[in-house]
Amino acid sequence: MKVCVVGAGASGLPAIKSAVEKGFKVTCFEKSNDIGGIWRYKEDPCPGEGTVMKTTVINTSKEMTAYSDFPPPAHCANFMHNSELLKYFRAYADHFDLQRYIKFQHAVNSVKRCDDYEDSGRWSVTWTNQISGKTETGIFDGVMVCTGHHTEEYWPKPFPGQTQFKGKILHSHEYRDSKGFEDKRVVIVGIGNSGGDLCVELSKISKRVFLATRTGTWVMNRIWDFGEPYDLAYLNRCMQGFRKILPLSWNNWVLANKLNTRCDHGRYGLQPKHRPLEAHMTVNDELPNRIACGMVTVKPNIAAFGEDEVIFEDGTIEKVDIVVFATGYSFGFPILEGGELIPVHENRVNLYKYMFPPDLATHNTLAVIGLIQPAGSIMPISEMQTRVFTGALAGEVHLPNRKAMLKDVQRKQVKMQARFVCSRRHTIQVDYVNYMEELARIINARPNIALRWLSDPKLAKVLFFHGLAPYQYRLDGPNAWPGARDALLGMDERVFEATRTRRTKETLQSKSFTKIKYPYRAVVA
């Protein structure tokens, strides 16, 4: 079977590997000249391509960001700089010999159903070689769309007087580094991860930085108690069990108190009306410090612009040189039959398991990969999605009919709407632990925890108390990996030793978070 993968970024690479594992003939089309997608920093990305900022550091830990059969090296930082993450991608691609399946500088123009689709489920893909200019069309049995959702800038409705503003206005998508911002007075609009990172970075070289926010936000530090990465402490089966048993209001109360212990959000002007688990939290280690230093001033939303000033909703007026809109992104699928195959409205889309268009349930030969917003890393989820898709294409996984798919989509939408603040950024929100477990059950890759408490209690402790690392989904099921158990048991050591670069009698006496008694770990988490 011939499989087309669109994009060779963080989702495209595991898509290639998963297809190769099933024995499919794979062709990946990548419009740029290299792998890595948004995580490969570039001064001048090609049209429709995103890029991180030069200083971007991932906000999920390396073990929770890894692919399921390729642990990152022990010497890697627990939270990798984008250049280090790109090295990891390159090592992954080299280890599994993935680049030979990639056609670089080949842009996909269209993907549409073949004339005999109702019988065959096949797709007609048209692409252009950007070097020669030659356009070709090929027929594929399956298509995985791995184009990401951080390329199309979202701009809010213009504020009064915005067109008369004589300073510079840009979107965070255009930002690369701090050159040109020296000694400027800057307003950042939006308090998501990008907005927070911009505030911290620019506050060190700009004359003044104002953070304009409509809602405020809860700020999560990368480091939890005892120096443990927050996602390893928080995203695990133990904590998920507590969250299922106890009322959501109690979970929100506990987390709010925990976050306010680190930084009183009301005191720092960050306190939102919503509770922590009702919106995507901002991961940032330095923002409260910059506010405390007076280098970042938190303001309400913009009310209007003047020629060289911004008027905020509290009536205060500030002279401003540059305004950066960190207001997120829109997504769509224009290459899929002109955008009509998967309609998107205000970032709302109907996809079964956030992957499959229900209207194509007869064959399920096309899937969108990586179109999720988890409280955790996207990479392991993308990989799991590719395993579900290739399993379905190989006939090993049987998916429900259109009616059942739509029912599942609607159930998830109702659940998310009831829990999260109504916002275009929460339309593809998923709980990392629940969603990974859900996909793993489809391909029968979820480890049997109860059985392992009897047969392998050492591993069972890791599976239950430690972070939900992706290696566990290679213990059982299709394409199991013999090294999965060792990767899980060695994870704690890799995390702990990454920071212990100064080895003295005192540092050697310290203990990792996971060597603290397990019940206490659960309480402090």
TrEMBL record:
Cofactor(s) for this UniProt protein: FAD
Keywords: Endoplasmic reticulum, FAD, Flavoprotein, Lipid metabolism, Membrane, Methylation, Microsome, Monooxygenase, NADP, Oxidoreductase, Phosphoprotein, Transmembrane, Transmembrane helix
Topology versus the membrane: Single-pass membrane protein
Highest taxon of the lineage: Eukaryota
Transmembrane intervals: none
Top-level taxonomy: Eukaryota, Metazoa, Ecdysozoa, Nematoda, Chromadorea
General function of this protein: Acts as a Baeyer-Villiger monooxygenase on a broad range of substrates. Catalyzes the insertion of an oxygen atom into a carbon-carbon bond adjacent to a carbonyl, which converts ketones to esters. Active on diverse carbonyl compounds, whereas soft nucleophiles are mostly non- or poorly reactive. In contrast with other forms of FMO it is non- or poorly active on 'classical' substrates such as drugs, pesticides, and dietary components containing soft nucleophilic heteroatoms. Able to oxidize drug molecules bearing a carbonyl group on an aliphatic chain, such as nabumetone and pentoxifylline.
GO CC annotation, single: endoplasmic reticulum membrane
Family under the similarity heading: Belongs to the FMO family.
Organism, as annotated: Mesorhabditis spiculigera
Protein name: Flavin-containing monooxygenase 1
Keyword Endoplasmic reticulum on entry: yes
Entries under InterPro entries matching the protein: FAD/NAD-bd_sf, Flavin_mOase, Flavin_mOase-like, Flavin_mOase_5, FMO-like
Protein localization: Endoplasmic reticulum membrane; Microsome membrane
GO biological process per UniProt: lipid metabolic process
Pfam hit, one: FMO-like
E.C. number: 1.14.13.148, 1.14.13.8, 1.6.3.1
Keyword Endoplasmic reticulum on entry: yes
One Gene Ontology molecular-function label: trimethylamine monooxygenase activity
Catalyzed reactions: sulcatone + NADPH + O2 + H(+) = 4-methylpent-3-en-1-yl acetate + NADP(+) + H2O; hypotaurine + NADPH + O2 + H(+) = taurine + NADP(+) + H2O; NADPH + O2 + H(+) = H2O2 + NADP(+); heptan-4-one + NADPH + O2 + H(+) = propyl butanoate + NADP(+) + H2O
